[in-house]
Amino acid sequence: KAGVTQTPRYLIKTRGQQVTLSCSPISGHRSVSWYQQTPGQGLQFLFEYFSETQRNKGNFPGRFSGRQFSNSRSEMNVSTLELGDSALYLCASSALGQTSYEQYFGPGTRLTVT
Amino acid sequence: GQSLEQPSEVTAVEGAIVQINCTYQTSGFYGLSWYQQHDGGAPTFLSYNALDGLEETGRFSSFLSRSDSYGYLLLQELQMKDSASYFCAVPGANNLFFGTGTRLTVIP
């Protein structure tokens, strides 16, 4: 089975712009989660989608949003970018319906905001 | 709220055994997961303990004590390729809450 894929792998944006990141989960996985990883804050949960519904959201401002399509692919969007949004954004998929302790991560999108 | 405490860094010698501890404070505890992340790589799932006791997977073992709100990851016969960051994590309501991570350096 192919793993989780994320596009693009690297992105450079300017403050104030917006960005859309894409994630394709492992085939058959219906749960997709997004995380932000920074050296200072570690891995922080952004949101989780299952069957096109957002089931949980982390403590991030409304500038961070996401969606999931009927084929389980997911996108996340960050509007009005700030310097502090520079991070590695990781997507993970899971075959489990709830309490997903076993997640499979993609390689991430490295976002740099200048 | 939730908190997971891990040592920030650990150094060990190739061939030795190392233990990475994790103490947690969380509501609605289901179990404890462990993930490994090499520099520039994605986190990969190592193990999950839902019940108290030791779970062994090859050179890696993971332990959980619910009464002590404590767990650890044990790595035996350390290899240079084990140099990585290790995270404990607790599953919640459709999310995974990660600890701060422990950077393991294996030296010859």
Task: Record keyword descriptors for this entry.
A: seven-stranded mixed β-sheet; four-stranded antiparallel β-sheet; globular; B: 108 residues; mainly beta; six-stranded mixed β-sheet
Helix-strand category of chain A: mainly beta
DSSP summary: helix tally of chain B: 0
Outline type of chain B:
globular
Overall strand count of chain A:
11
Largest sheet of chain A: 7 strands, mixed
Summarize the helices and strands and which ones pair or pack.
The complex is a heterodimer of chains A (114) and B (108).
Chain A: E1 5-7, E2 10-13, E3 19-24, E4 31-38, E5 42-50, E6 53-57, E7 64-68, E8 74-78, E9 87-94, E10 104-105, E11 109-113
Parallel strand pairs in A: 2-11
Antiparallel strand pairs in A: 1-3, 3-8, 4-5, 4-9, 5-6, 7-8, 9-10, 9-11
Chain B: E1 3-5, E2 9-13, E3 18-25, E4 32-37, E5 44-49, E6 53-57, E7 60-65, E8 70-75, E9 84-91, E10 96-98, E11 102-107
Parallel strand pairs in B: 2-11
Antiparallel strand pairs in B: 1-3, 3-8, 4-5, 4-9, 6-7, 7-8, 9-10, 9-11
Structure description:
The complex is a heterodimer of chains A (114) and B (108). Chain A is mostly beta strands and 114 residues long. Chain A is 0% helix and 53% strand. Chain A contains no helices and eleven strands. In chain A, strands 2, 4, 5, 6, 9, 10 and 11 form a seven-stranded mixed beta sheet that branches. Chain A starts with a strand and ends with a strand. The model of chain A has no long low-confidence stretch (mean pLDDT 93). Chain B has no helices and eleven strands. In chain B, strands 2, 4, 5, 9, 10 and 11 form a six-stranded mixed beta sheet that branches. In chain B, strands 1-3-8-7-6 form a five-stranded antiparallel beta sheet, with no helix packed on it. In chain B, a hairpin with a 4-residue loop joins β9 and β10. The radius of gyration of chain B is 13 Å and the shape is globular. Chain A binds chain B through residues 4, 31, 33, 35, 42-45, 48, 50, 55-56, 58, 90, 92, 98-108, and chain B through 30-31, 33, 41-45, 48, 50, 87, 89, 91-101.
